[in-house]
Amino acid sequence: MKRLVTLTALLLLALAASVQLKAQLKTNKKNAEAQKEVEALERQRFEAQVKKDYAFLERVFADDLVYTHSNGKQNGKPDYIQSIKDGKSVYDKIDVEALNVRAYNNGQAAVVNGTITITQPNKPDGTPNIAHIKYVVVQVKDKQKGWQVVLWQSQKQPDAKS
Do the beta carbons of residue 147 and residue 123 sit within 8 Å? Predict the structure, then answer.
């Protein structure tokens, strides 16, 4: 009788472990898919900022976006998009140097950190205006709207020659 109870307990433990493993594999797969989606969207968003694709930016920025520039200035979604339209935020080129995406909550949220180089119009003295930026982005997946940026935080890095 003791053997039967022990065997039954072991079988139940094995079954529970199997169910847990299956759930974990499913979560891992959803997170991996989310990581690929968000990485592609990050690159597309940078391209949209350069090309001034306002429709794309309207779609990928959440209505409650908090966008903190490297100088500490903060914008919401309407203000940031308007700053691009008004020429206050100008991007000739954005090069992605490093990009790391971590997905959470069964692929429903993602934290991105990376390094970019932004080329802007030349300074008044004609010298290149290049900024090396480290940044963090938080994106969430909305059922109707898809992935949306809810937070951008950046920090300017010193030039290599500094």
Answer: no
